[in-house]
């Protein structure tokens, strides 16, 4: 969430200086949506982990395995979200560099 605050503050300053921030604002919106999805998916992952811990693998091996497979799928989904964060931050950095370049040319 702190990254979103920084993005918002920077975007506001860019707009106040009458520069085009539409690309940065769009990336920040995508980041917000990804953050909301990540939080929801992480909660589901945590719940699945808690459920798995409660299963006795010796007396219920099939249930344990099923829950473990489910947990791994959720972890894979979280990893995909982290990759989305990285891609969005790379795009945002490119946008910040473009603003910097436009200011240097002025």
- The average pLDDT is 95
The number of distinct β-strands equals 0
End-to-end Cα distance? 33 Å
Give me the number of helical elements: 3
Rg for CA atoms: 20 Å
Fraction of residues in H or I helices: over 70%
**Main sheet specs:** none
Structural class per helix/strand content?
A: mainly alpha
Unreliable residue stretches: none
Tell the overall outline.
Answer: rod-shaped
In percent terms, what proportion of residues is strand? under 5%
Order of helices and strands: HHH
Can you lay out the helices and strands and say which pair or pack?
Elements: H1 2-16, H2 22-54, H3 61-105
Describe the structure.
It is a single chain. The protein is mainly α and 106 residues long. Helix content is 88%, strand content 0%. The chain has helices at 2-16, 22-54, 61-105. The mean pLDDT is 95.
């Amino acid at each position: 969430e702190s990254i979103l605050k920084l993005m918002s503050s920077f975007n506001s300053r860019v707009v106040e200086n009458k520069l085009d921030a539409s690309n940065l604002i769009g990336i920040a919106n995508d980041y917000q949506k990804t953050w909301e999805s990540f939080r929801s998916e992480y909660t589901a992952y945590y719940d699945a982990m808690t459920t798995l811990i409660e299963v006795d693998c010796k007396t219920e091996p099939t249930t344990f395995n099923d829950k473990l497979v489910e947990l791994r799928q959720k972890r894979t989904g979280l990893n995909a979200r982290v990759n989305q964060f990285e891609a969005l931050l790379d795009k945002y950095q490119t946008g910040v560099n473009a603003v910097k370049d436009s200011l240097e040319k002025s």
